[in-house]
Structures are given as C-alpha cells and as structure tokens.
Amino acid sequence: MNKEMRQHSRSNVHFEMRVYTSVKKGSYSVKVENISHGGAFVKSKHLPKCGETISFELFDETFKPFHMGNAKVCRVDENASRDDRGFGLMFYELINNSLIDSASVQ
Q1: Which residues contact 30 (CB under 8 A, 6 or more apart)?
Q2: Average of per-residue pLDDT values in the chain
Q3: Region label for 88, one of left (φ > 0), alpha (ψ between -120 and 50) or beta (otherwise)
Q4: Residue 99 backbone dihedrals phi, psi, to 5 degrees
Q5: In whole angstroms, what is the distance from residue 45 CA to residue 75 CA?
Q6: Which of 14, 15, 82, 24 is nearest to 48 (CA)?
Q7: pLDDT, tens only, 38-78
C-alpha cells in the first residue's frame, strides 16, 4: 500500500510479534519493521495469504508481551529477496500512541 493511501503515519520500531494464523494452526515470531495506529509491516519468511485474518501479540525488547489483537493481511511481498519478504497488516482496532512512541527508533 503506498503512503498516500495510509491513514496513519508509520514509525520504525524494534518490536517482535508472535503471529497466530488460521492456516498453520500454530504460531511463529516475526520482526516488526514499522507500525502505525492502524497497521504494520513485518518481515517474515513465513507468508500468510492476502486477506487472511491473524491474531498477534507484540513483545518489548525483554520479550514481555504488551499488546494483543487481530489484523487482516492486506499486502504480501513474496517476490522480494528472501531477507526482505514480509507482509502488511491492517489492525481491527487502533493501537495506542504511547505504545508506538515508546518503541520508535529515532
């Protein structure tokens, strides 16, 4: 999704996210590259299907969970190089400002 279509500006962060998908009936960890109130882009070699609903948990640098929610996969970058593959998420509920600000990379 291009920047003009986004409702909220993105912040670069150092979050880890645990993703629970409906396809695998399991979970895996991914690195959150950037996040906004309404969504995020995560890097992952495990790619869900576009349109899929996932559940997630966000972890801080000590791997303590601090936010849980659900999101829709709105973009999948499967043609990127292996290290740059990932997917975009649209959160069903907006994330609080303080959560994003506390982990933003300056």
Answers
A1: 16, 17, 19, 42, 43, 44, 46, 86
A2: 82
A3: beta
A4: -65, -45
A5: 14
A6: 24
A7: 999 999 988 889 999 999 998 877 888 888 999 999 999 98
Q: Which of 27, 32, 21 is nearest to 99 (CA)?
A: 32
Checking if the pLDDT of 1 tops 80, the result is: no
What span, in angstroms and rounded, lies between the C-alpha atoms of 1 and 50? 12
Domain boundaries, the chain: 9-97
Rama region for 63: left / alpha / beta (φ>0; ψ in -120 to 50; rest): left
Homologous superfamily in CATH for domain 9-97:
predicted glycosyltransferase like domains (2.40.10.220)
- The total number of residues shown for the chain amounts to 106
Which pTM was predicted?
0.79
Position 74 scores a pLDDT of: 95
99: which 2 tokens?
């959560």
Alpha-carbon Rg for the chain, nearest whole angstrom, is: 13
